[in-house]
Design a protein that fits this description.
This protein has about 725 residues and is mainly beta. It contains three helices and 49 strands. It has a nine-stranded antiparallel sheet, with no helix packed on it.
């Protein structure tokens, strides 16, 4: 995009807080390949257009407009969209020509009028992935006075050049409804008709002093997407026209760099990669035969340039990748079986001093794993897919997996604490009990995983209180002797909160672990959850967990995830990469916008009563900055917090308070830490102490209600305070 950079730099000096700037000084090739795609990994070709005065480049530094730059296509003169709203040049004529494809789409949606003054940009491409996506905003001068009945027509026509089959991608997210003024509108700007999908309408510029363009109104950013066939040729036609007349133009804004056809950042525009496959070599011939299962009870180990520093790759299906290769590097590759299963398998295959040639694409290395001792093993887990909030639904996912080599059957039992009730259970064959259910399962195949989705009703306050614990437990018995009994049961403790961030980290034991109950063979169980709360699909997601020194990175074992992943461990850094995840926004589908990873890990040797483990994760959606999760605290204690311990043991005054809050522990136990938590459940202030009476400065807090978490030895108590 070098040819456009100079223009952007000069324009940013003068345009902050102003409307968009539009230019028609760029060729169609520049608009497609330098702006819309802008990646050496993909290329548009056979570029065609109609109505060149209706096609241009835009940019802005105004933070009120979601796209900083991109391509604009208008059924009229694109220069009329420049600047802030004036009400002038609402109608214009550019091509004064129709389009048969756009007319057919309009008629298929029940319209009988003509299509006029059509502008389009059309090009061919070949995708390197199995998806296509790009971001856009629809704007129209029909918003307001004419939004009840007039609707210009636009489409994104994707055509498979081998089959000739076409589809229109310009639809409201999660539907097949075409985007238009009549399908996205807000009654606030014309009371003559009701709102339709108003959550997708963004801004009405008429009468606004802070408008970003000279058009009446526009939608929120949306993502057009489709499943495509890798290495298959396609064409895309981005087209817009006036319906029935040439008055009151509409336009589509396409975000720069958003045309995604497989520009995976881990590939660095380089398809050369190492693919490692571990499998159960049932006939011990060293070759992966058709019916032999992938093996995921271990990790791939690799060392670069004989440095004696190893990194590890783990995947959900026993297939791992190494991306972004340096062709000068040598790679030593091997497979390491998880310690729990080392007595049941062997794997001796290694590859030393492997060099990858440029242009070699996918380099596959197989690691046969031989079962030396047949065994049965059923693992059960309970995963929290959100946090319990008073008055809302709380969800768990139960997973049970046959990690053995023989099919098995048995009974799964689930129980929950009485402070919640089950709303729904995805397993119709279960039998309800007083606080849970039982399920008889059969024919659970080797390495097969089954899941049960549960939804609970959490009562409102005061039936429950913030800080109460919701307990879930599950266990499985098998009809055959189970070789590893430590994973036959699972307990989950989750804290009731006022609200929660959907991007978070939790540990199954809760904030406190009784030291005497935790042995050398026990693990901590972490779940990192993520959710796309943006307005466009996330093509890929990265989750990074830099483990604290109190956790032993060599003991990590992956347990489950919502989507296929590639986990790389370098020292104490864990990085999960979810390629081609195409995670939809929560505004489209709340359930499909979420994901998680669950793993277990042991504390570093030497932990004791008083050891505090603080763990935080980072979550990246596409190229956006990191979302930093909460810090989950795990404290090893002599005795668990006694829930009957009264807040009356603490004197907190004055309450309400202006500047200084005094907290006194009446039993003379030292107060070690105080957290200030807002009503959304977010910790906004932390102070450490070593006294039985402390004074805390809260002058920097805004007026409102807060919760004070008081830590005193093995006790944590929460009290509400009011800041005046």
């Amino acid at each position: 995009m070098k040819k456009i950079l100079l223009f952007v730099l000069f324009s940013t000096i003068f345009s902050y807080g102003q409307g968009i700037t539009v230019s028609t000084n760029y060729t169609n090739n520049q608009l497609v390949n330098d702006v819309l795609i802008n990646s050496p990994c993909a290329q548009g070709y056979n570029i065609q257009s109609q109505g060149n005065c209706g096609i241009g480049y835009f940019n802005t530094t105004n933070p009120n407009f979601p796209f900083q730059e991109g391509v604009i296509i208008r059924n009229g003169n694109v220069n009329s969209s420049s600047g802030q709203y004036t009400g002038n040049n609402m109608s214009s004529v550019c091509s004064n020509t129709g389009d048969s494809e756009l007319l057919a789409i309009s008629q298929a949606n029940g319209n009988s009028g003509s299509i006029n003054d059509v502008s389009y940009l059309k090009f061919n491409f070949v995708s390197s992935a199995n998806y296509l996506s790009f971001d856009f905003i629809f704007a129209s001068n029909e918003y307001g006075p004419y939004q009840c009945s007039f609707s210009d027509v636009f489409a994104f026509i994707l055509t498979d050049l081998n089959t000739g089959i076409s589809q229109n991608l310009a639809v409201i997210p999660g539907t097949t409804t075409p985007v238009s003024v009549t399908t996205i509108r807000d009654v606030l700007y014309n009371s003559g008709c009701s709102s339709v999908n108003p959550q997708f309408f963004s801004t009405y510029n008429v009468g606004s002093s802070s408008s970003t363009m000279n058009m009446n109104g526009y939608t929120v950013p949306m993502t057009a997407s489709a499943t495509v066939i890798p290495n298959n040729p396609y064409s895309i036609k981005l087209v817009i026209g006036d319906y029935n007349d040439t008055a009151f133009d509409s336009a589509v804004f396409f975000k720069a760099n958003s045309f995604n056809v497989g520009t995976n950042p881990n590939l660095a525009c380089n398809p050369d990669q190492i693919k490692m496959v571990s499998f159960v070599d049932a006939n011990t011939n060293g070759i992966k035969d058709t019916n032999e299962l992938d093996f995921n009870l271990g990790s791939f180990k690799y060392e670069l340039n004989n440095t004696a520093t190893s990194s590890y790759v783990v995947s959900q299906d026993g297939i791992g990748y190494i991306f972004s290769l340096d062709y000068a590097d040598t790679h030593d590759l091997s497979f390491q079986i998880d310690v729990e299963y080392a007595n049941y398998y062997t794997s001796s295959t290694t590859y030393n001093d492997v060099l990858i040639a440029q242009g070699s694409n996918e380099n596959v290395f197989y690691f046969p794993v031989v079962n030396t001792n047949p065994y049965a093993d059923v693992e059960v887990m309970v995963i929290p897919t959100n946090n319990p909030v008073p008055g809302f639904a709380y969800n768990n996912t139960i997973t049970y997996k046959n990690k053995g080599v023989v099919s098995t059957a048995g009974t799964l039992t689930f129980n929950h604490s009485p402070n919640v009730t089950i709303l729904s259970n995805s397993e119709s064959g279960s039998v309800a009990t007083a606080n849970g259910f039982t399920l008889d399962f059969t024919n659970l195949l080797p390495f097969e995983t089954r899941t049960i989705d549960l939804s609970f009703s959490v009562p409102t306050i005061p039936t429950v209180a913030l800080g109460d614990i919701v307990q879930s437990s599950s266990s499985a018995t098998s009809t055959v002797t189970d070789a590893i009994t430590s994973n036959n049961s699972f307990d989950l403790n989750n804290i009731i909160v006022g609200s929660y961030d959907p991007n978070d980290i939790n540990e199954a034991h809760g904030n406190e672990i009784l030291f005497s109950d935790f042995g050398a063979d026990d693990y901590l169980y972490y779940t990192i959850r993520f959710q796309n709360t943006g307005t466009a699909n996330a093509s890929f997601v990265s989750v990074v967990n830099n483990l604290p020194a109190e956790l032993n990175e060599n003991s990590i074992v992956m347990l489950h995830s919502s989507h296929d992943y590639n986990l790389t461990r370098n020292g104490s850094e864990l990085k999960w990469f979810f390629d081609d995840i195409n995670l939809v926004p929560d505004s489209v589908n709340n359930d499909d916008s979420q994901g998680y990873v669950t793993f277990k890990i042991k504390p570093t040797a030497g932990y004791a009563v008083g050891t505090l483990i603080e763990n935080t994760a980072e979550i990246y959606f596409d190229y956006n900055p990191a979302i930093i999760t909460n810090t989950f605290e795990t404290l090893f204690v002599n005795a668990l917090n006694n829930e009957s311990y009264s807040v009356s043991n603490f004197a907190i005054y004055p309450n309400p308070a202006n500047d200084i809050l005094t907290i006194q522990n009446k039993d003379n136990t030292v107060i070690s830490k105080v957290n200030v938590v807002d009503i959304l459940g977010k910790t906004i202030k932390t102070s450490t102490f070593n006294a039985t009476e402390i004074s805390m400065d809260i002058s920097d807090l805004k007026a409102g209600i807060y919760f004070i978490e008081i830590h005193s030895n093995t006790i944590k108590t929460t009290q509400k305070v009011i800041k005046k």
